[in-house]
Amino acid sequence: EAGVAQSPRYKIIEKRQSVAFWCNPISGHATLYWYQQILGQGPKLLIQFQNNGVVDDSQLPKDRFSAERLKGVDSTLKIQPAKLEDSAVYLCASTLGGGYYEQYFGPGTRLTVT
Amino acid sequence: AQSVAQPEDQVNVAEGNPLTVKCTYSVSGNPYLFWYVQYPNRGLQFLLKYITGDNLVKGSYGFEAEFNKSQTSFHLKKPSALVSDSALYFCAVRDIRGDDMRFGAGTRLTVKP
Predict the structure, then answer these.
(1) Which residues of B touch A102 (CB under 8 A)?
(2) Which of B43, B51, B104 minimises the CB distance to A100?
(3) Per-window interface: B 35-54 vs A, CB < 8 A
(4) CA–CA min distance B62, chain A (Å)
(5) Distance from the Cα of residue B35 to its chain's centroid
(6) Cis bond before residue A81 (omega within 30° of 0)
(7) Domains (ranges, CATH) in chain B?
(8) What's the number of domains chain A is made of?
(9) Which residues of A50-77 are buried (b: 16+ CB within 10 A; e: fewer)?
(10) What's the pLDDT tens digit per position in A27-50?
(11) Which pLDDT belongs to residue A1?
């Protein structure tokens, strides 16, 4: 079974530029999450999708971050414009459902904003 | 809202010795509890979870965890540590009535030969 795919793996941009991350979840997984992991901290949920609908985006900084999941499969997370404090690893995870189902994580995208 | 505390930033053990990585949680209802491991430049990998039933849960790579409701703890254990167990370990909790999963800050485990 193929895992969660993410690209790019690394990205360096200047502040005020824009950036986009892509995620392809495990086939058949209806629920998809984007997390932000700042160095030395645990993952923090940014947004959760159930199929192509948003379940929870309460911690997404909507003035600069946006995400979509077209057709309920792939997802894209965008930051525009980026700030220095956005430097982090962005993790995508998918799962069969909520509750007691474990999440499967992609390798992450390490973003450095200079 | 639920929360997780991992009181130790760093745990050091000698190879062959038992290891424990501590986790305490707070939820308003009953919890689902998870342990994940993260190797350098990799995403998180699922190790084990507690749903209900037996308080001792066995998972991947010889790890196990004990759920203690009275102490609201879910400590990760392994009888004999390997150098290859060196990694970052995260505990996570989800209230059974909700979808929101919260992660601890992580504990870095170092196993020395």
Answers:
(1) 34, 46, 49
(2) B51
(3) 36, 41-46, 49, 51
(4) 18
(5) 4
(6) yes
(7) 3-112 (2.60.40.10)
(8) 1
(9) beeeeebbeebeeeebbbebeeebebeb
(10) 999 999 999 999 989 999 999 999
(11) 63
Nearest to B99 among A4, A44, A48 (CB): A48
Q: List pLDDT tens digits, range B20-56.
A: 999 999 998 889 999 999 998 788 999 999 998 899 9
pLDDT one-digit tens code per residue, B81-91: 999 999 999 99
- Look at chain A and count its residues: 114
Q: Provide CB contacts within 8 A for B101, sequence distance 6+.
A: A45, A103, B34, B92, B93, B94
The C-alpha of A87 sits at a distance from chain B's nearest C-alpha, in angstroms, of: 15
The CA–CA distances, whole Å, from B67 to A24, A86, A105, B4, B93 equal 34, 36, 24, 14, 12
